[in-house]
What we know:
There is one protein chain. By secondary structure, this protein is mainly beta. The chain has one helix and six strands, in the order αββββββ. It has one helix at 7-16, and strands at residues 20-22, 40-43, 53-58, 64-70, 74-79, 84-85. Strands 1-2-3-4-5-6 form a six-stranded antiparallel beta sheet, with helices on one face. A hairpin with a 4-residue loop joins strand 5 (74-79) and strand 6. It is globular and about 30 Å long. The relative contact order is 0.20.
Amino acid sequence: MRSGTNPLDIAEVAKKAGWTVQPLKKGSKKDLTYSEGRGLSMNPPAGSGESLYIQYHPGCGHHGEYKVSSPKNGTLRIDLNGKVLK
């Protein structure tokens, strides 16, 4: 991920690749859109066999962070500058 990448740019790349992009499904930001200052949930195409899951959470860390989850690699949190968080 490039430093300073806008979450909507990531979502657009995911959509073009056939991923489903929608508001977060759980928590206090559930069902609120990105344009309302909320997060994003990105899932690979159904039937693709891909188990990667990406979320963008605004306000976590300093300005926001991505959470990338997969059974193989577990969960990584990445800030908007591309730094992997602990």
